[in-house]
Each structure stands twice: as C-alpha cells, then as structure tokens.
Specification:
The chain contains 1 helix and no strands. It has 45 residues and is mainly α. Helix content is 31%, strand content 0%. The protein has one helix spanning 31-44.
Length: 45
C-alpha cells in the first residue's frame, strides 16, 4: 500500500472543503508525488 494523502473531495459538495485541501490541517508533502511515480515505475518494470 502506498500512502497518498487520500481524498475528501470526491462525492457530493461539502461546505468549506475546496479542491486541493482536506479537513483540518491535512498536509501532503510534495515528495508524496515523487514516491507515487517511483512506485508506478517499479510496478511497470
């Protein structure tokens, strides 16, 4: 399993939630994208 930060944005409209944000003080490090891309490449090889 690869940590991704999850998503609170799918589904119905949620008051106070905007694309690219999460509830509370959710922060997803920029490095997560690098790690996801590396994992994808490893699966393809």
């Amino acid at each position: 399993m690869i940590p991704s930060g999850g998503s609170d944005y799918h589904g119905t409209y949620k008051e106070g939630l905007q694309l690219g944000t999460g509830w509370g003080d959710l922060v997803v490090r920029d490095e997560v994208l690098v790690e996801l891309k590396a994992a994808r490449s490893a699966l393809r090889s």
